[in-house]
Amino acid sequence: MRKWIIFGLALSLSAGCAKRDDVIKIGEYGSLTGTTATFGVSTKNGIDMATEEINAAGGLLGKKIQVIVEDDRGLADEAASAVKKLVTQDKVVAVLGEVASSRSLAGAPICQENKIPMVTPSSTNPEVTKKGDYIFRICFIDPFQGEAMAKFAFENLKVKKAAILKDSKNDYSVGLAQYFAETFKGLGGQIVAEESYFEGDQDFKAQLTSIKGKKPEAIFIPGYYTEVGLIARQARELGLNIPLLGGDGWDSPKLTEIATLKKPGDALKDCYFSNHYAADDPNPVIQDFIKKYKAKYEEVPDAMAVLGYDAAHILYDAIKRAGSPEGAKIRDELAKTANFPGVAGQTTIDSARNARKPLVVLKIGEGGAYEYMATVNP
Ligand code: PHE
After folding, report:
1. Which CATH number fits domain 142-275: 3.90.550.10, 3.40.50.2300, 3.40.50.150, 3.40.50.720?
2. Assigned CATH for 2-140+285-357
3. Is 122 in the pocket of ligand 1 (CB under 6 A)?
């Protein structure tokens, strides 16, 4: 009797193993819920699209790709547990994520320790890829983004006095504020006020009143869309009608919806932010992608959808070249990524595992629509 049970167990175990080996498992972690939910959802849409394309063309290493997604609800400690689960329980061969730098900083050390390559589509804080040689990104970094927006404010908008309103618990926000201030002051501009808030805050009137008293000509707000939308509305309610400027963290289909007083997006009209791509760019690679994406998801993709798509394709291409699901081999091939034709531009991974790519400055116009303003090359 006992023998039979053991035999049966062995059979079902080997069946389980065979089944598990039928697929290449990829982990994904992101904020599918919470105040940055559109970050995770858009990224997932992009990753799903890339995965379906590769699977339809036969998969990878003769197997289908299976993406296992974990929702970290936008919290750094949940991001760490999500990555731990993906790496130790699910035994994924590589990890895609996160969008937000603070969450990527929490997940990266776990990937590094376990020698599982991690590719963040869109975390821009310089510290992320310094977590180790298994950690990659396919986007530009914040010193470049901060410098570009400071130059744009000083040279194009002729702003001489700027204020900063940052999320002081958010690595991305703190870093970007610093890079902006350094360049702006270097150009001869003055930072007349620097205030802070925390993600999840609803009332920014005290900070905005203090900023108003210092009479800046623009406010740089390196935050995420939920707070930025509320800040814009409250600034206008306080009669603070100067341009607001920001970085890629503004990008969300929800931004202008939140920043609405009377007409869609009116609280952010004539405001500017830097981003990874412009949807009104006539480049056929971009327009073809938008068409494909719209047919599937019925909306125009934001930057995270595009970067999620590119990140997945870049990772799958590296796995294909590696010819193996082994972490070290995938890592070596990721490091060799050169001139990969992404939707958000050609991607080459440098020796610090970052990508040097141009950024675009977008203007928020009538009805909350984004208008392409300028391209800045690294
Ligand atoms: N770059 C931001 C960060 O590092 C995240 C982000 C990327 C948000 C792209 C929106 C669009 O935290």
Report:
1. 3.40.50.2300
2. 3.40.50.2300
3. yes
